[in-house]
């Protein structure tokens, strides 16, 4: 169900966010678009008094974003960037190891890295197309590796929440005989990855019951995603969405950041699996296509693909 809260009320509620500790927040894909909007909202409403880690490929963009954050008054707060192409699983292992070496606890993990590329023949060295790798496998591996730090935070009575930004409520039924999506049509492939994110959160909620796992549908947001796509169709769509009157129909990233932060902090108020909409509102099981069998099958499959133990 859609939130009836206007943006002004959302911002006012977010302005009340406070912590008795210095929260550690990791934003993967936080150098542009939705991830950037959420990171900036988080920094703004914590007044910079947080340890914020942006993970992405664009150092210049990250440094510009970090420079815009409010200067913290706490000497233990820090804002930093880790350069990483998370489409490759070996890079994910490296970045999670680096984070865990510095932080025993993690309070917030926001995952929004993605790609718009309908060419499914171009595979990463892991044998996965970039869209599925960024939208599912790398996110799963990031959560899996960082879960102990999330649990540690929760055991110390601190927040422990994960947000995966994709398209909650817009997926479709998945084929348990084709979890690699090798035989799926383009539309089935896209919808399956959406459902994978739903089921991913269900699986993690089962294995780590003290943590909140959230899959989000942010709606139409004005982002640069697709401008550098090898696909002419995707580049054209991204251009239209950013530089023509069509952009006025899309939500600005800064507004999306406020709504998603509200969903993280207020809507997902208890541990478990959550699904939120474009206004940070709880959408429950709307458009849900998971079940226990698919959850368990996908978990086992992903453990094997990511080389996890």
TrEMBL record:
SUPFAM superfamilies in alphabetical order = NAD(P)-binding Rossmann-fold domains
Task: Name the InterPro entries on file.
Answer: NAD(P)-bd_dom_sf (IPR036291), SDR_fam (IPR002347), Sec_Metab_Biosynth_Oxidored (IPR052228)
Swiss-Prot/TrEMBL keywords: Oxidoreductase
Give this protein's Gene Ontology molecular function annotations: oxidoreductase activity
Q: Matching Pfam families, A to Z?
A: adh_short
Q: What domain of life does the native source organism fall in?
A: Eukaryota
Keyword Oxidoreductase part of the UniProt annotation: yes
Keyword Oxidoreductase included in the entry's annotation: yes
| Name of this protein | NAD(P)-binding protein
Organism of origin: Lentinula guzmanii
